[in-house]
Design goal:
There is one protein chain. With 107 residues, the protein is mainly alpha-helical. The chain has one domain. Helix content is 54%, strand content 11%. It has a two-stranded antiparallel ribbon with strand order 1-2. The protein is rod-shaped and about 75 Å long.
Length: 107
Amino acid sequence: MKSLKKTSKGFVGKEIIIPVIVLGIMVIVLFYGMRWFNGVNDEQNRVLTEQSLKKAAVQCYANEGMYPADVEYLCENYYVTVDTDKYNVVYDCFASNIMPVINVYIK
């Protein structure tokens, strides 16, 4: 009597290689997706920080009749927080009655 079992010819781990490759591709896609998401999140936080500084400067002008001379004044009196470890703030105040140039950059 002949046996009904067939012996596999060729590479023994063929059933394992394809799932491992697919898993590797999925890990790589997940890694780059997380990096992209972190970049988008950092940019949104930068924009929010810049907007809050501008809003506080306008509020200061409305309350006091002049724009503040520096960012520290906004942080102390108008409760704006800036993560100085992450961002560089350019605050250029030309005159007390002209809106200052406020830019926030990611370090």
